[in-house]
Design goal:
By secondary structure, the protein is of the alpha+beta class. The protein is 25% helix and 27% strand. It has 3 helices and 6 strands. Strands 3-6-4-5 form a 4-stranded mixed beta sheet. The protein is globular.
Length: 135
């Protein structure tokens, strides 16, 4: 049986930037689908500047995980939507800082975002251990 964790083919391209080419989720594992987290705090304030917005969106995502009694190690897929490619490096640095050594599957897309003041949005999928999924 395949274990929960990164899948990095030795004969494929290497992942650049601290992510996995794929992330295996074995049968019987529950999934938590996390809607796009925007860079807005609990008082509906949008922080100024990309790094502050990035950290706020991640704070919101981590809050959802914590509410589900999960941590960053449960993330299996993260998709980040950036309003401009120029934010890619800061986005990568903040993500690596917050995830530490954890390497989920990752996609970064440059796109027009729903709200004009947002500079990014982050959505994710997390795995719930088989023992917890049955509860």
């Amino acid at each position: 049986m395949m274990r929960l964790g990164p899948v990095d083919p030795s004969d494929g391209p290497k992942a650049i930037g601290g992510y996995a080419q794929a992330f295996a989720v074995p049968p019987g594992t529950g999934l938590l689908f996390i809607s796009g987290q925007m860079p807005v705090d609990a008082e509906s304030v949008i922080p100024f500047g990309f790094e502050a917005q990035c950290r706020q969106a991640w704070r919101n995502l981590l809050t959802v995980l914590r509410t589900a009694q999960l941590g960053v190690d449960s993330l299996v897929k993260v998709t980040t939507f950036l309003s401009d490619r120029k934010y890619a490096e800061i986005n990568s640095q903040v993500r690596r800082e917050l995830l530490g050594g954890h390497r989920p599957a990752l996609t970064v897309v440059v796109a027009e975002l729903f709200e004009g003041g947002w500079l990014l949005e982050i959505e994710a999928i997390a795995a719930i251990a088989a023992k917890r999924a049955a509860v």
